[in-house]
Each structure stands twice: as structure tokens, then as C-alpha cells.
Design brief:
The protein is an alpha+beta fold and 623 residues long. Helix content is 35%, strand content 20%. Strands 7-8-9-10-17-14-13-12 form an 8-stranded antiparallel β-sheet. A 5-stranded antiparallel β-sheet has the order 1-2-3-4-5, covered by helices on one side. The radius of gyration is 27 Å and the shape is elongated.
């Protein structure tokens, strides 16, 4: 009898343990996480309470396409399915039943209708629909009835059966394209979500291999992709879940590789605190590659677990202002990484007991990526922050979108995109770089890379030397090197000083053009260009939003002509030696400068700051 009682007790313990495992054994949800999220949701005014309410409003919204403004109804249905599943996990009683039903009906709709079916269509549709429905199934399989769970699982299995026959040119070569992350990542998550990664082990191993190669070739050490920072986030909505899913399936190699790439630093330097959707520029990121403005795909929330603990308070400060509790949405359902159902990651990943800290003065103002891009930010405070980028563009892989960013510059400040890039456009007027007359930068030039000779951080700024490399040799020069000196003022004054010096060889008789695209993004309202002369030198003035300005003086050549339009151009007709520009960024009345000397021996002074060029040391320097 004592032995029987012991066996009964062991069985009861095992059943309780198995039940606890069933409750906590969800994909992407570590043991105990649901309980901590539920507790955090109860804290008045907390991140979790606000995120929960945001997601609840969205799931309950009467108009699907208003709640999930993707432009495609089929995606909206899949996103509602996943968020409804999360709501079911976080609620009880009648609410739990209600949200589980919404998750089931949404999943059923995706699988039954011919247009949104994840077994059909092109790669993005298959991945968005299939991955979201698979996650929904994983979270709801123990809540739905057995027949409901079986029905949805069969649909996911059919989608997985169809994936091997789907192909795309960007799957090949170095696998740096976002298509690899989107398609291979989505398929991998589907496998793990329904527990078929063992049954499909050969395919599972292939997916992991392709994703590992994608991360090795497609990103610099800070996460720069030739397609742009926005496209890294676009791909990341599939890539990071795939890395985590593979780790939960027993192989942490993908997740280990992902943790070595500091995407979280890149987003802190490239994303702005501009309020979204107000029609006055709507500049959300410091754009490069083929980026265009757009939402962030849940990327900010997905990156939280990849941030080192000692840096996490700084990241959360940025996060809260970019997309979190201090974000300025136009509707209650648009915050907390709402796009692509990212609020699920905002709830699961945001740590409830870490206090955010202002990175200003604690993190460097310069960030260098191994693919030849260098970023600057004066502070992390509001929409008026100054953000600047210059690049050598040292990396290229085929079978992926690209733009030649050699010697490119970008500038955001005071809620205005002053200097931007081409995005997906190819017209020569779209570029912000050094041009050479009679030659084009666009046709056949994406594979012509440059070289980053120097990227040296300094207090509140830095110094960069970028070589235009094969791109500028292709335009008829022996060499072209852009020196960039950046000095950020006191964060409270929000003043920045940026000087570029383009030194070329083999340029005699050629017309060099310093060009800034002031009209991209295309609806960037409020940028007004003008020009004049001051202290014996030509200058240009760009006035933008929030009483902001960018004033640039051309120190050399003194007879340069300025085209004050879009694009803004400094033309050095036939000089062929160099173009030296000093720019001040600020608000209010632009300052007047005192300029002395000639050529590269000139000095520029505003207030107590004097700049000159030290030819012996080959540096722009503060004197």
C-alpha cells in the first residue's frame, strides 16, 4: 500500500509538472515570463499596462485596416491572430475565450481563403502569413479545441510542404539579401512552432545554414546592411524570431551569431524621435542604402534581449521615446511597435524592473560600422536631435538591393531631413556626395566600393577620412578622399559643426560638384534653400522646421558657385583640387562667420571656435 501511495504521489507530481510545462512551454515565452508580464500589466502607468491597452484596443478595433494599417487585408488578419493569441494568454475567463476565438477565426480565414493562403503567393506573403499563424497556433494549441488545433496545424503543414518548391534569385550567392531572412526565417519559425523541425531535419539544417551565412555576409559589426538600416529591421522581424526559435529547438548557434551584431546601437543612431504621420516630413530614420521612410516592423522590441545588461538602461531610454511610453502616437492603437504585431514583442521582451537612463554624455557620440559607415548623434532627447552620417561603403554583395554610398552624407536635425539619399531612385540628382562632371554615379556603380581610412572618435564628435575608391576612379579621378570633422555642442544648446574637405587627384580640368539632396524624402516640407556671400566667401542656407537651419560656407574654392535648389550644389568649375565646406546646424538666427586667408590656408571663425586645415598633419582642426 505504501508503495502504491508513493507511485500515486509521483504520478501527481509528474502531472502537475507536465501541466506547468504546458502552460509555460510556449515558443518565445520563457518559463515564468507570462506571470511576470501579467503582474507588470497591473502597474498603473507602466510600459506593460500601456502596451497591453494599446494591443487590446487594436484587437478590438472595428475596422481591421485602421487597426493594422498594412495596406493589405490579408496581413492584417494574420497580425490580429497573433495579437489575439497573446491577449488570450494574458487574460482569464470570458476574455480568454473571446480572444482565443478571435485568434482561431483569424487563423482559419488566412488558411481557407485562396488569396491569403501561406501555401501560395510570393515569399513575403508566405512568411508573414505562415509565421504569424504558426506562432498563433503554438500559443493557442492548448486553449483551442483539439479539432480547431488540428485544423490550423494541417494548414501550416501544407504551407511547409509548399516552401521547398518556392525559389527566388536573391536566395543565392552570398545570401546577404533581406529575402533570405524573410523567407528562410519565416519557414524556420513555422517548423519549430508546430514541432516539425525534427521530422524535417534536413530542410531545418539548410534553413539554419542560409541564415547563418546571411548574418555573416549581410551585416557589418553594428548591423549596417547595404540595403539600409530600415531593411535590417524589415528582415529582422523574421531573422530574430528564427534565431530564438532555433535556440529553443536546441541549436543556439544562430542566436549566438546574432548577439555579436550590435543592431541595437545602429537603431539608436539612425532612428529619430520625430512624431509619426503628421505630414511635415515624417522623417523616421537616418536613411542610407535603398531605405525609404517607414515603420519599424517590431525591430526595436525584438532587439531588447540582445542588448548587454550594462547598456540596457540606455537602450530603453531610446526605446521609450522612439516607440514606447514617451512616443507620440496619433491614435491609441499605434504605439509600442504596433506595426507587424510588434506589440507582442514589446510585452514579452521589455524588462519591467530596469530603469532607463539618458545615454547623452554616457555613450559616445560616434558609431563606426565595419562596412564603412560612420554615424554621429549629439544627444537622445527629442525630435530636434542632430543626426549625421558619412560613408565609404566598403562592402557589396550581389543578388540584393544596393546604392553607391561612397562619400555619402546624411543630416537630420530639428524635425527636418536636410540632406538625404536616393532611396530606390537612380537619378543623379538624388545623391548626396561628391560628383564629377560628365559622369554618372548611378548606372552600374553599386559594386564599386570605397575604403574607410580613418574613423576617430573625439569628445562630442569625431574625424573621418573616406576614400571614394573605384566609384570615383570610374568617374575619371585618380583618387577622391572626403575628410569629415564633426563637433557637437552642448546638448542643451543643440548646435552642431560639420566640415567636409574633398581632396582629389587627377581632377584638373574637371568640374567637381559637392551635392546635397534636400528634397528626399519627397514630401519633406519646409526646407528652403538660399545663398549669398559673406566675408569674401559664398555660403548657402537651408531653413527647416522648428526654426532650424543649416548654414554652409565654402572656404575653398573662393569662386565656387552655389545652386540654391534641390539638389543643393557647390560647383567648383575646373578647379579639380578640392572643395572645403563648413556647416553649422542650429536654431534661431544663423551666425555670421569671419573668414581669413586663402585656399586651404583659410580659417573660419564663429564666436570662440576657429577651424583651419593643418596640411602637415592632413587634418581639419580646431585652432
Amino acid at each position: 500500500m505504501r508503495r502504491q501511495n508513493c507511485l500515486v504521489f509521483i504520478c501527481l507530481v509528474w502531472m502537475i509538472h507536465a501541466n506547468l510545462q504546458a502552460q509555460d512551454g510556449y515558443l518565445f515565452i520563457p518559463s515564468g515570463r507570462l506571470a511576470s508580464v501579467k503582474q507588470a500589466v497591473q502597474r498603473p502607468g507602466s510600459h506593460h499596462q500601456n502596451a497591453f491597452q494599446t494591443m487590446k484596443d487594436r484587437v478590438n478595433h472595428r475596422n481591421l485596416n485602421e487597426a493594422y494599417p498594412t495596406g493589405l487585408n490579408k496581413y492584417a488578419v494574420a497580425f490580429r491572430a497573433r495579437e489575439a493569441a497573446m491577449m488570450a494568454l494574458l487574460t482569464n475567463g470570458a476574455d480568454k475565450e473571446k480572444y482565443a476565438d478571435i485568434a482561431y477565426e483569424s487563423s482559419r480565414m488566412v488558411l481557407r481563403q485562396s488569396d491569403p493562403n501561406p501555401s501560395k503567393g510570393y515569399g513575403l506573403a508566405r512568411s508573414i502569413l505562415g509565421m504569424n499563424i504558426a506562432i498563433t497556433y503554438n500559443w493557442m494549441q492548448n486553449t483551442w479545441t483539439p479539432s480547431q488545433a488540428s485544423e490550423i496545424k494541417r494548414g501550416i503543414q501544407q504551407a511547409l510542404d509548399a516552401w521547398p518548391s518556392y525559389s527566388h534569385a536573391n536566395f543565392g550567392h552570398s545570401r546577404g539579401s533581406n529575402w533570405v531572412a524573410v523567407c528562410r526565417g519565416g519557414e524556420l519559425v513555422m517548423m519549430v512552432a508546430i514541432g516539425e523541425h525534427g521530422k524535417r531535419s534536413r530542410r531545418f539544417d539548410m534553413l539554419k545554414s542560409h541564415l547563418k551565412q546571411h548574418m555573416a555576409n549581410g551585416y557589418g559589426d553594428k548591423g549596417v546592411s547595404q540595403e539600409g538600416s530600415g531593411y535590417a529591421g524589415y528582415a529582422g522581424q523574421f531573422l530574430i524570431p528564427a534565431c530564438v526559435a532555433a535556440a529553443e529547438a536546441g541549436d543556439a548557434s544562430l542566436l549566438d551569431a546574432a548577439k555579436k551584431i550590435e543592431w541595437w546601437k545602429l537603431v539608436m543612431f539612425t532612428r529619430t524621435f520625430h512624431p509619426r504621420g503628421q505630414g511635415d516630413g515624417d522623417t523616421k530614420l537616418l536613411q542610407f542604402g535603398v531605405d525609404v521612410r517607414g515603420p519599424d516592423e517590431g525591430w526595436a522590441s525584438l532587439l531588447i534581449p540582445l542588448v548587454p545588461k550594462n547598456q540596457l538602461p540606455y537602450y530603453l531610454w531610446w526605446y521609450d521615446r522612439f516607440i514606447g511610453i514617451h512616443f507620440k502616437p496619433l491614435g491609441s492603437h499605434k504605439g509600442f511597435d504596433a506595426h507587424r504585431a510588434g506589440t507582442t514583442w514589446a510585452l514579452l521582451n521589455y524588462p519591467p524592473n530596469v530603469r532607463p537612463q539618458d545615454p547623452s554624455g554616457r555613450m559616445p557620440n560616434m558609431l563606426k560600422d565595419s562596412h564603412g559607415y560612420v554615424f554621429f548623434r549629439n544627444r537622445w532627447r527629442d525630435e530636434n536631435d542632430i543626426q549625421f552620417m558619412t560613408a565609404a561603403d566598403t562592402h557589396h554583395h550581389s543578388h540584393a538591393w544596393d546604392q553607391p554610398d561612397n562619400l555619402a552624407i546624411r543630416l537630420l536635425a530639428n524635425k527636418t531631413s536636410y540632406i538625404a539619399g536616393p532611396g530606390k531612385e537612380r537619378g543623379i540628382s538624388e545623391y548626396s556626395t561628391l560628383l564629377v562632371s560628365g559622369r554618372t554615379i548611378a548606372k552600374g556603380s553599386t559594386s564599386l566600393t570605397g575604403k574607410l581610412e580613418l574613423a576617430e572618435a573625439m569628445p562630442a564628435g569625431g574625424y573621418v577620412i573616406a576614400d571614394g575608391g573605384a566609384l570615383h576612379r570610374n568617374m575619371g579621378l585618380r583618387s577622391a578622399k572626403r575628410h569629415t570633422f564633426v563637433m557637437m555642442g552642448n546638448p542643451n544648446s543643440n548646435v552642431g559643426l560639420i566640415s567636409t574637405l574633398d581632396l582629389v587627384t587627377g581632377g584638373a580640368g574637371k568640374n567637381l560638384i559637392w551635392q546635397a539632396n534636400t528634397g528626399a524624402p519627397k514630401n519633406n516640407a519646409g526646407v528652403e534653400e538660399s545663398s549669398g556671400n559673406e566675408s569674401g566667401r559664398p555660403y548657402f542656407l537651408m531653413k527647416g522646421n522648428n526654426n532650424g537651419y543649416v548654414k554652409g560656407w565654402v572656404l575653398h574654392p573662393a569662386d565656387a558657385k552655389i545652386k540654391a535648389a534641390d539638389p543643393l550644389q557647390v560647383l567648383a568649375d575646373g578647379d579639380g583640387e578640392s572643395i572645403w565646406v563648413v556647416m553649422m546646424v542650429g536654431t534661431g538666427n544663423p551666425p555670421q562667420a569671419r573668414i581669413q586667408g586663402n585656399g586651404l590656408n583659410s580659417t573660419w571663425t564663429v564666436g570662440s571656435v576657429t577651424l583651419g586645415y593643418d596640411q602637415a598633419q592632413n587634418r581639419i582642426k580646431r585652432k
